[in-house]
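STRUCTURE REQUEST FORM
Protein name: Serine hydrolase
Source organism: Paenibacillus agri
Requested output: structure tokens
Priority: standard
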Amino acid sequence: MKNTKKWIRKNRAVLLLTVLVLTGTVINACTEVGNAANSPQTPPPVTSEVTSLKAPQDAKQLEGPRDSKELETFADGVFADAMKKYNTVGSNFAVVSNGKVLLSKGYGYADRENKIPVDSSTVFQIGSVTKQFTALAAMQLVDKGKIDLHHDIQEYLGGMKVPNKTGKKLTMYDLLTYTSGFDKPDILSGSKPEYVKQFYPMKEALEANMPTIVRPPGEAYTYDNFGFTLAGYAVGQVAGTSYAQYMEDNIFKPLGMNSTNVRFKPELLSRMAAHYDPKGKLIPLEGFIPTDRPSGGMVSNADDMVKYLMMHLNNGTYEGKQILSAKSIEQMHTYQVFPDKDYPVTTIGFEGYFKEKMNGQHVVIKGGNVTGHSSLIVLLPEKNTAFYMSYNNDSMMSLDVYEEFMNHYYPKKEAAPKPSYSAISEQQAKDYVGLYQNTRLGSMRTLVSYSNGKLFTETGDLGKSTLKMIHPLLFEDEAGNKVAFQKNGAGKITYFYYMALPHYVGYAQKLNRDLPFTDVPAGSKYASYIQNLRALKIMNGKTATRFDPNGKLTQGEFSALLLHAHGWESMPDTIEPNKKQMLSGVPNYKPNSPITREMAAVMIQNLRQAEPGTKKVTLRGETDAWAVKAITTLVSQGIMDPDTQINKDGSINFRSKQPLKRQEASALLDLAFDYYTLPIAKR
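Status: completed
Returned output:
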């Protein structure tokens, strides 16, 4: 989970779902900071006591970490490189295996300004790793017979109602496997510094921000912050206490996790690592709504997390205390959701991204981040081994460490066989082609098209990829990334799952692009734009059958359409900044007055932030000075309605002072935010 407002404004089309799921923004370190092992600004690594096992052995012969000295040497090198690469100020790293803590070590600074090093007692916000604890709490109540994973969740909400358009009940199982079907899974993801000292009750936050179930629960994966918050609320309701108190009494205290809490206790804040952005700038601690956040609000440290990991690896038992039944632990370690039979996505609480990085092992992981802190836990249950790490920026460093750890201790025993590919016929392709929308992040849309025996995907500024069919429903792009299509309950191809770094990870849902409007002929040059915006539920008709293509829009109406088209409404922290940015430089904004074409162009460019194209564009006709740059930039990128044409000399009459028509608005919004027409527009 992550506060994305600043990064979103700069990188609208390159937001990665890995950013939102595992750690943070994909950052290429461009500034060297003093946190490599030999840097004069870096303190000596701080180490807790470790258990010495057998003598070091050749890494090529290793099958998992066994020797603490060898492990420490390995970790020192990995963290020196990774922290330099990702501009990380401080990190911890703890490894447990066969009931022993092999390593628990700090690297760099918890507080660079005051030269406080990271050690095993340093407290970090662990972000979405909290979800795994929430899942465990729910499974404890399953063990006690107080929750049935497959009963309607509303039995456990104390009367709270969840809007559901599907006719299929939502269950705790759906919530814990990220398959709730909510339309706005991030509606409760906001965080701000001022929330730290304020208390926001969970019940009020849920009721004020309740999303709607729009996909049949259990049908498709979507990373889901709201779902886990709702699950945590259900835990408290069933237990007859608050979520925070339940976690304290039933997980933290029994495990002796004295530095772990759902809330910012003063003593924990005194040991919390400072927060830094990816460039190394100190940034403030942020709190949440609700204050007790089951989806990502916990704090912890290495001393506590090793206890939690050992409990998981010991069938739910720690120091003789049965925290969870062996049966429930096994469920939490067993994959439940598969877009393709060979590609696992989630267990109950854990996840399994990047199958290729598992090197043939059974691995379950859970990552998380908040602004300025990132964490990752990795378990290999069959090898009785796990590790935890936290660090004080939001970057992809943890993914590098995970990959290095797996390659060093569990290298691939043999290269995966190269798949054979089959051509896909045009008739077969009809079931796949269309416009798909990411089920979590509405601003990410992908066009799937067909040509010469192959499928193609194109996603906004991320570009175009070629897909080759391994077998029906499973494809591979030119980089070797797998794309798995999935049928809905009626047997129609409705979703695809695409895993591709440095692009994104996630599910997308096929949209219905039927055009029911009697006043928009199929041959209209605006038809495809209107189709797309209707499919995306951005711009509907005046009635079910009438679009009113030549109708006018008020400034307020267009503003609402534009903010919706921009696609970040489900990220609460972005709404107000986007409204402010949208109106920057727009004089005399009057919500009830008609909007002109020039005003619409400026507002679009304020959010789109397009770069000027290489071809110079000059304007003919009257245009206000404050609108010239926005119009010429959009036009140079091909963002213009089909009735506007560039002359051979590069001049154009944008008709700037004319009122914007509804069909013109559909074209500008479609082109500006990459929804695509069929066939693929050439830009």
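Reviewer notes: The two ends are 34 Å apart (CA to CA). Residues 1-60, 676-683 have pLDDT under 50 and may be disordered.
Form closed.
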